[in-house]
Design a protein that fits this description.
single chain; 411 residues; alpha+beta; N Utilization Substance Protein A, Chain:P, domain 4; OB fold (Dihydrolipoamide Acetyltransferase, E2P); five-stranded antiparallel sheet; four-stranded mixed sheet; 15 helices; 15 strands; 40% helix; 26% strand; KH_NusA_2nd; transcription regulation; RNA binding; transcription termination; TF_NusA_KH_1st
């Protein structure tokens, strides 16, 4: 029987997609009501009986018997006496005729269309369930299995074997994945592609680092220590500002753990990302000083949204950091642009770079200022190789620059 095969096939497909029994029955009823409506113009006087265990489907049509000459004979819920007697000889006017409608009577094309509609409805349910589930999990850390590794993304699967995606842009550049291994990431966002949800995970988001701290530091999980802000250069360096709600607990010590036991596991997860844990404070100058750690600051001047920080010559490179990472992260952490300036030795008079404007091109002076060098002695105090590494200046330009500056003091 076509109906039995259809019900059994659909029920098995729905079970494979973890669709519950009441939903399966509801979908079947909706699809067959649509078939009935299309053929008869209404489904008001029809009953659908479904037995999933036996793969049984019955469609019953109910109509009232009326006289052959009645004005109501064309109503959908009426049947003429002569037509009723063809079904059963002893029907009388006013009685109800119950007639079973065979599924096969709808035609093979309608049954094929119904089968496709049933499958599509289950797929739509899957999409809705996936969207609903992961919308509620945005910002949460999950563990997933690596399913397929592609050049631009990694396809992962959750415990229900639903596909999730980790784009190249959301991977730590040092990440190396193997099929079948389990990894951690945060649910970053959900993209809709032609109404199909695509769950995007991230390992570069600052929230991922927050969740790792929550999993490793019980005081953060319990709310005794709060994370005020996280800034990252994924795989390279991060700064985490923390605050304790209990004066007896040192937030930095709690996050680092005994001999670094807590933070080491986080660092390994992030491919040896260097993490600075900073004690948050409302004192902006102290906060800036801590943010520029490990550099030791001599003095700070506030200039609106910008901050001028003065350091001893041997502390400037520490404040700036490799590739300018330390000062960039510190600026983002405190929400201020930080300009680093070198303290000049009081012995011997120094000369501001602006005074060399007739010998040194303005763009070169601007380039030097970007790295915290604003005087002749501050430039001469560092090796040429360091200056070449920290600026976009070519070696010949640097040689000429040093020649001009040295000449000033030789005179």
């Amino acid at each position: 029987m076509e109906s039995k095969k259809l019900i059994e096939t659909f029920a098995e497909f729905a079970r494979s997609k973890n669709v519950d029994r009441p939903t399966v029955i509801r979908i079947l009823e909706e699809v067959f009501k649509a078939m009935i409506h299309k053929k008869f113009g209404t489904d008001d006087n029809f009953d659908i009986i479904i037995n999933l265990d036996q793969g049984d489907l019955q469609i019953w049509r109910f109509r009232e018997v009326v006289d052959d000459n009645s004005e109501d004979i064309w109503d959908h819920d009426k049947i003429s006496l002569s037509e009723a007697k063809k079904i059963e000889e002893d029907f009388n006017i006013g009685e109800e005729v119950s007639e079973e409608i065979s599924v096969d009577s709808f035609g093979r094309r309608a049954i094929t269309a119904a089968r496709q509609t049933l499958i599509q409805k289950v797929k739509d349910l899957e999409k809705d369930a996936l969207y609903l589930k992961y919308t509620q999990l945005i910002g949460e850390m999950i563990t997933v299995e690596v399913h397929q590794i592609l050049p631009q993304e990694v396809i992962l699967v959750d415990e229900e074997r639903k596909e999730l995606f980790l784009p190249k842009s959301e991977q730590i550049f040092k990440d190396i994945f193997k099929k079948g291994e389990y990894i951690r990431a945060v649910v970053h966002r959900i993209d809709l592609q032609k109404s199909t949800p695509k769950v995007i995970l991230s390992r570069t988001s600052p929230i991922f680092l927050e969740r790792l701290f929550e999993s490793e530091v019980p005081e953060i999980f319990d709310g005794i220590i709060t994370i005020k802000k996280v800034v990252r250069e994924p795989g390279e360096r991060a700064k985490v500002a923390v605050e304790s709600l209990d004066d007896r607990i040192d937030p930095v010590g709690a996050c680092v753990g005994i001999k670094g036991s807590r933070i080491h596991s986080i660092v390994r997860e992030l491919q040896n990302e260097n993490i600075d844990v900073i004690n948050y404070t409302d004192n902006l100058e102290l906060y800036i000083s801590r943010a520029l750690s490990p550099a030791k600051i001599s003095s700070i001047q506030m200039k609106g949204d910008r901050v001028a920080v003065y350091l001893k010559p041997d502390q400037v490179s520490l404040a700036i950091g490799k590739g300018g990472q330390n000062i960039k992260l510190a600026s983002r952490l405190v929400d201020r642009e930080i300009d680093v300036y070198r303290e000049v030795d009081s012995i011997g008079e120094d000369v501001n770079l602006e005074e060399f404007a007739d010998e040194i091109e303005p763009w070169i002076i601007d380039e030097l200022k970007k790295t915290g060098l604003d005087s002749a002695k501050s430039v001469l105090a560092i090796p040429k190789e360091d200056l070449e590494r920290r600026t976009d200046l070519e070696k010949e330009t640097i040689d000429e620059l040093y020649r001009v500056l040295k000449q000033e003091f030789e005179e």
